């Protein structure tokens, strides 16, 4: 048994740094000492909205401390990235190559969630406790399924590795795997936060000719230029549905609209906005995962437009993570620069505050 610490939500909109006890992995389980954990809007939303106690965090990287008797792909001492969309490899969707929407082990898409290790591997105040998105990375240690582990063949800094497992993958994958943006295409990105900046990077790496960033925050627009935006448009809060911004996009794209538009704000009232940005037969991609009822003017679909809502950039970790790491090692994907600030585990509130204020491209907790 190991004594550790974790950021634990109380199910009432609050969190605290608490003592936990971690017990050895069994079967197909892996014990990981977390070295870095990314800070994401999803973490903030979850502790504010979920009505149950749980360990926060779903982006992380660390070192393997112990493995269960059935584990074959990793061993003690390996450097690993954690992947929250855990594929089973055998269900209907996994057999189609859609590992990101596994029907058996996903915490998001499955009718059941077999991806969560037994609660009693982590004890808080005498009881087992749930781990956010099956991982709970805002913790000194976690126990996860082997299928949640990606072994780094080439070691990279833990802070960089930690953000690959959600924000980078979601943005980059939405461009490369979902939209399949081609060389010379025009791209609009609504929202230049952590995910939006990685959409911009994916578009740059895909050699898009025009990459138009839209945001209300001047500092984020400046950041977007560094990561590859060729044009920026400052939005205003009174621009309902960003229709005025859409007119500016059309002026930049021969009055047609862009080939692709990616919505990365997570604001329900902007759910239809990417449709207003694209040309006939263009593609709108709902990256941020709005999960609320919204009203859409069907005229925005005219004509032949596609609107897709992908999960996690269609991630297949054993395929996609090596590609991302290669782009990083080659200097194409700027990830060191994306980590604006690091925090220790006692500064999680500061990390959330900075994120909400738009100060960071990405904040990371370093253990």
Structural class: alpha/beta
CATH topology of the largest domain: Quinone Oxidoreductase, Chain A, domain 1
* Terminal residue distance: 19 Å
Q: What number of structural domains do the residues give?
A: 2
Low-confidence stretches: none
Gyration radius from CA atoms, angstroms: 20 Å
How many runs of DSSP E, i.e. beta strands? 19
Overall pLDDT level: 95
- Classified by CATH, the class of the largest domain is Alpha Beta
Query: If classified by CATH, what would the architecture of the largest domain be?
Result: Alpha-Beta Complex
Secondary-structure element order, as H and E?
EEEHEEEHEEEEEHEHEHEHEHEEHEHE
Shape: globular
Count the DSSP helices. 9
CATH superfamily of the largest domain: Medium-chain alcohol dehydrogenases, catalytic domain
Description of the molecule:
The protein is α/β, with parallel strands linked by helices and 367 residues long. The protein folds into two domains: 187 residues, Alpha-Beta Complex (Quinone Oxidoreductase, Chain A, domain 1); 146 residues, Rossmann fold (3-Layer(aba) Sandwich). It is 26% helix and 27% strand. It contains nine helices and 19 strands. The strands form three sheets. Strands 3, 5, 6, 10, 11, 18 and 19 form a seven-stranded mixed sheet that branches. Strand 1 and strand 2 form a beta hairpin. Helix 3 packs across helix 8. It is globular. It starts with a strand and ends with a strand. The mean pLDDT is 95.
Write the layout of secondary structure elements.
Layout: E1 2-9, E2 15-22, E3 29-39, H1 41-49, E4 54-55, E5 60-67, E6 79-82, H2 92-95, E7 122-124, E8 127-128, E9 130-131, E10 141-145, E11 149-151, H3 158-179, E12 186-190, H4 194-205, E13 210-215, H5 218-227, E14 231-234, H6 243-252, E15 258-263, H7 273-277, E16 278-286, E17 306-308, H8 317-329, E18 339-343, H9 348-356, E19 362-366
Parallel strand pairs: 4-9, 12-13, 12-15, 13-14, 15-16, 16-17, 18-19
Antiparallel strand pairs: 1-2, 1-4, 2-7, 3-5, 3-10, 3-19, 5-6, 6-11, 7-8
Helix pairs in contact: 3-4, 3-8
């Amino acid at each position: 048994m190991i004594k550790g610490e974790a950021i634990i939500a109380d199910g009432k909109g609050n969190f605290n740094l608490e003592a936990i006890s971690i017990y050895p992995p069994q079967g197909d389980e892996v014990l990981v000492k977390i070295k870095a954990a990314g800070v994401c809007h999803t973490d903030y939303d979850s502790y504010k909205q979920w009505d149950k106690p749980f360990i926060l965090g779903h982006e992380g990287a660390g070192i393997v401390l112990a493995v269960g008797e059935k584990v074959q792909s990793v061993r003690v001492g390996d450097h690993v990235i954690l992947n929250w969309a855990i594929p089973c490899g055998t269900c209907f969707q996994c057999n189609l190559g859609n590992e990101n929407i596994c029907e058996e082990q996903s915490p998001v898409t499955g009718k059941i969630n077999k991806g969560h290790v037994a609660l009693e591997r982590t004890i808080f105040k005498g009881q087992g406790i749930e781990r956010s998105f099956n991982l709970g990375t805002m913790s000194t240690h976690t126990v996860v399924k082997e299928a949640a582990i990606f072994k780094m063949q080439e070691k990279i800094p833990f802070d960089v590795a930690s953000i690959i497992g959600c924000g980078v993958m979601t943005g980059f994958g939405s461009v490369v795997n979902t939209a399949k943006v081609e060389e010379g295409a025009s791209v609009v990105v609504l929202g230049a936060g952590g995910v939006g900046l990685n959409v911009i990077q994916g578009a740059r790496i895909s050699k898009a000719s025009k990459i138009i960033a839209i945001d209300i925050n001047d500092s984020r627009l400046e950041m977007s230029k560094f990561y590859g935006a060729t044009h920026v448009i400052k939005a205003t809060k009174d621009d309902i549905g960003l229709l005025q911004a859409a007119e500016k996009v059309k002026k930049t794209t021969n009055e047609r609209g862009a080939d692709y538009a990616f919505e990365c704000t997570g604001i329900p009232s902007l759910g239809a906005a990417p449709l207003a940005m694209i040309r006939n037969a263009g593609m709108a991609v709902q990256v941020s995962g709005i999960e609320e009822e919204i009203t859409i003017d069907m005229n925005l679909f005219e004509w032949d437009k596609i609107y897709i809502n992908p999960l996690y950039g269609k991630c297949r970790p054993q395929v996609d993570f090596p590609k991302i790491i290669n782009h990083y090692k080659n200097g194409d994907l700027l990830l060191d620069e994306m980590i604006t600030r690091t925090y220790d585990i006692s500064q999680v509130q500061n990390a959330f505050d900075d994120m909400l204020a738009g100060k960071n491209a990405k904040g990371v907790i370093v253990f």
